[in-house]
Design brief:
The chain is built from 13 helices and 17 strands. It is α/β, with parallel strands linked by helices. The chain has a seven-stranded mixed sheet, sandwiched between helices. Strands 1-2-3-15 form a four-stranded mixed sheet. The protein is globular. The two termini are about 35 Å apart.
Length: about 400
């Protein structure tokens, strides 16, 4: 019997090493990685700058706890603030911890500075915010909630993109609105600009906080540092992770100073969050992502991917019926009786790693350092598998 808890339906693949956009098994098989550890390895595998930063820090200091100053935290927080609409940062080990930090902050803010009776958060159908009890409740997905009753109280849900429904749901206990600018697990659905702007206006009108879950869409994934920037809005709270550590466990909760003021000493904490190793890697990631021209390059290569996906839709209308997402956070909705998990398996057999998403969507999450030639290679594999699936 395997000593691991059986919480994953794992492929039999085991990788020995990675280089750039590729993963290699011990027997030498090479795979083009368009999953990126589910949008985590944003700069590819074994990026030399990240490797150097981690090994240098590992030879100095791993952990001190947050009872002391951690200079790497101060530097990374300053850089995140400078690159965003936020004023202060709390570092975590993961995306779900960043979400928990933000959800607690919503309640603490209203308890301290607003109406203590406000605690409910409006979320959206199709959302995914993590696997803790409160983030499962925030998403409201029955598939993930099954077996974990009673559901944590305090969350309401609207149709994604329906501003009238949001307005109708606001009551005296409503404290905030929580949204993924691009739903990843929920089917790679991008909120349109008008909807995001409308949510900001609604929050201002009713005295609510706007929280963006940018765990998957942040740190350059859509061609902006954060995806909400495409709408030109400023959320009160942002949760991010995945790409910010480039593969090292790291998350962050960012907030405006007005909201962050609710967190004083003892209000929240973490043992490992913001440790020197994570901070060294996070700063190294920003060295690359915030470098002049990097995000412009992401947008250029994303435009190439966009064109090639349009060609796929025209060439195989029975296999793929819709393109979704934005930037290098893309999805293809499968059609014609084709199941996305079957496509993932077939593509893996062809040498391309992808991942499924809700609503029968095939998720494409290449590293931000992907090249047009590597995109063309991935499209060739997609085309070959789509042709086989259509023939079957």
């Amino acid at each position: 019997m395997n000593a691991l808890m059986q919480t994953y339906a794992r492929s039999d693949l085991a990788f020995e090493r990675g280089e750039g956009a590729y993963l290699f098994t011990a027997d030498g098989r090479r795979f083009l990685d368009f999953a990126s550890g589910i949008a985590v390895t944003a700069l590819g595998h074994s990026h030399p700058h990240l490797v150097q930063a981690l090994t240098t820090q590992a030879q100095k200091l791993w952990h001190t706890s947050n009872l002391y100053r951690v200079p790497g935290q101060e530097r990374l927080a300053e850089r995140l603030v400078a690159a965003s609409c936020a004023d202060q940062v709390f570092f975590t080990n993961s995306g779900v911890e960043a979400l928990e930090c933000g959800l607690k902050l919503i309640r603490k803010f209203h308890d301290d500075f607003g109406d203590p009776g406000r605690y409910r958060v409006i979320g959206f159908e199709g959302a995914f915010h993590g696997r803790t009890l409160s983030t499962l409740a925030a998403a409201g997905n029955e598939k993930y909630l099954k077996g974990y009753a009673p559901v944590v109280e305090g969350f309401d849900h609207c149709a994604f993109g329906n501003l009238n429904e949001v307005r109708a749901m606001i009551g005296p206990e409503t404290a905030a609105i929580l949204i993924e600018p691009v739903q990843g697990e929920g089917g790679m659905r991008a909120a349109d600009i008008a909807f995001m702007q409308g949510l900001r206006q609604v929050c201002d009108e009713f005295g609510l906080l706007l929280m963006c879950d940018e765990v998957q869409s942040g740190i350059g994934r859509t061609g902006k540092f954060f995806a909400h920037e495409w709408a030109g809005i400023a959320p009160d709270i942002i949760a991010t992770a995945k790409g910010i550590g480039g593969g090292f466990p790291l998350g962050a909760c960012l907030a405006s100073s007005r909201v962050a003021a609710a967190y004083g000493p003892g209000a929240h904490g973490t043992t490992f969050g913001g440790n020197p190793l994570a901070m060294a890697v996070g700063n190294a990631v920003l060295d690359v992502v915030l470098a002049e021209g990097f995000l412009a390059g992401v947008n250029q290569v994303a435009a190439h991917l966009d064109r090639r996906l349009d060609e796929m839709l025209q060439r195989f209308p029975g296999a793929f019926v819709e393109k979704r997402g934005m930037g290098l956070m893309r999805g293809l909705k499968c059609g014609g009786g084709i199941v996305n998990t079957d496509m993932v398996e077939r593509l893996r057999g062809a040498g391309l790693l992808t991942v499924g998403a809700g609503d029968n969507v095939l998720r494409l999450l290449p590293p931000l350092i992907i090249t047009p030639a590597e995109i063309d290679s991935a499209i060739d594999m997609l085309a070959a598998v789509a042709a086989q699936a259509k023939a079957a």
